[in-house]
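EI: anyone free to look at a 679-residue chain?
SC: sure, send it
EI:
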Amino acid sequence: MNLANLHPLLVHLPIGIFILAFLLELWQWIRKKDEKETILFILATTIFFSLLSIATGWFLGDNGGYDVDMLNNHKWMGIAFTLCAITLFVLRYCTKAIYRKIYNLLLVIGIVLLSLTGHFGGNMTHGEDFLFTDHSPKAIAIANIEKAQVYAELVQPVLEAKCVSCHNTSKTKGGLLLTSKAEILAGGESGLLFDTISGHYTNLFMHRLHLPMEDDEHMPPKGKQQLSAEEITLLDWWIKNENCFDCTVEDLEKDSRLEPYFASLEEDQSDLSQLAKNANFIPREDLERITKMGISLQQLSEDNPLLIANFNRQKNITTSHFDALENIASNVVEINLSYTNFNDDLITALKPYNNLIKLQLNNTTVTDKGIEKLKNKPYLTSLNLFGTPIKKLNSEQLGQHKKLTHVYVTPQSLTQESITSLSNANIILQGLDINEKFKASKITSPVIVANQEVFKDSLRITIETSFEEATTYFGVVNKTSDTLFKVYTNPFFISKTQTVLAFSEKEGWGKSEYAKRDFIKSGIPIKEGKLHAKPHEKYAAQHEVTLFDGKRGSTNFVDGKWLGYEEQNFKGTFLFDDNKEISSISVSHLSAPTSWIFSPIGYKVIGITENGAKKTIKTIDLGKNKPNVDVQRNLITLEFDAIKVKGIQLEIVNQGKNPEWHTDPGGNSFIFIDEVVLN
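SC: here you go
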């Protein structure tokens, strides 16, 4: 056995023993009791093990593999500490007061020398930055594995975690450094790492990794953290591809063994993903409290706690609305204030919302001065200022939002100076085609406005657009023929359940997307309702009353206005005050596949006569849900021959399990219902 190898064992003994002497001196000073003989014995023991440590350390240092300067610092500090311990032993025998004062001072100096000796020793073993740097293993996370640099992003992290502690500039075992490309290629005392050798593995590096654990040449040594099977396969693949230091994964020949490993490394590193990872889910009761103020809060998905806040075109917004949201501000990544009374005076209320990624201020009265008050939003990428009176914007105003890339503006509203300033800052102006004419690239959809969506007699409809000189067209969906569109000039009325479509068009600008809104006429009042199947406890709203309160839910399925059913069908009974003649039933439902919410796949309507007899009126099978990710409020109207009944029983079919095209195939599907209207 090489006695030099005992140094790591022996070196820790004088540390603990000397600290014991120091503590005992403090204890006896407090107790006013001298423990001279005990302390002399402890100091003598410290000196003995210090000398052994110096001797074994001297031989270990001569074996090489350590930085000379660090080795000298450690060695001479250790010698200085040992001399200090010997001097303390001699002074402790003396009884004169002057010697006792020198002893006390030297005792403190001994602690300092001991600490420095240990610190320099730790630097030699673990590296200079070991004491004040976090050395916990860093998980490898890559946004796009195909584009990842093989060495820098895959190989190097493995070497740093499992190999560099013994092969760094402070400690160079076997003369091998693994901290840079040049050092890796230079190899060590045993030769070049990638040299061909005899045996099953073709190079020295892989040969050492595959040796039995008991073999002295196995790397990493026994007792050190070992490489996983996946990491060894990764290194083998890299070396077989000529250990390329500048290649990406897609540049190299694929290895099927690595596919599961690479898949485990790939991680969404977008701001949205990282914010979601650090956010907590907001309790349902908090969300319900806020929605009562007319603010719609929608989770990005069922398993994502981040929120979109929609102020639903309110015209009475005050700071109290934002105060209500402040406790959950870190979860809010999008705020929609379009078509509200939001203005320059309210813009400071956005200060707590530092995680905003998207902010919609379109069609508000916010001006240039208001935008100047919008301070530092580090994640903001999209800002909608379309339809505002803003004329001047520059990179100084918006440059503080470091990730802002898209600003939506009204065509021809900004000065050329503003356009140039923002373009130079790499901010894309949507609504403008930045060329010599600065023409608008696309016209936005008009907005269909009405006081309510469920009405009794008739309903007044208006259509708004922000584009001057644009022609707006509207039409009512006709089941028997194509929808006929007319030029919109004045508000109009509807008197039955209908879907209104609208679009705008301007010469040279193209045609907008269609705007769509469903309006439901409630001709026959429901006296009472009964649910035969209980909704999910989280989505019970006001139970059966929810279905005939005349209020449609929003696209936010947690707004407290939807009845949700997980995996099971809906079944309910609705009674009138007396016999009524009915010829149609309309059902409002939600589709949000990314939140496991799907359109129903079937309906069954059963009439109930005055004496309680039942008769099937209408049955419809709609088939499977087709692939989509859109969040939509939908309306289905079932028509049938007129019949007099006292009430109806309605069954709505849930598909039960998520389809194969869904991100969670086979998971439980939901249906969400909010209004049942009869005519």
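EI: Residues 374 and 493 are 41 Å apart (CA to CA).
SC: 👍
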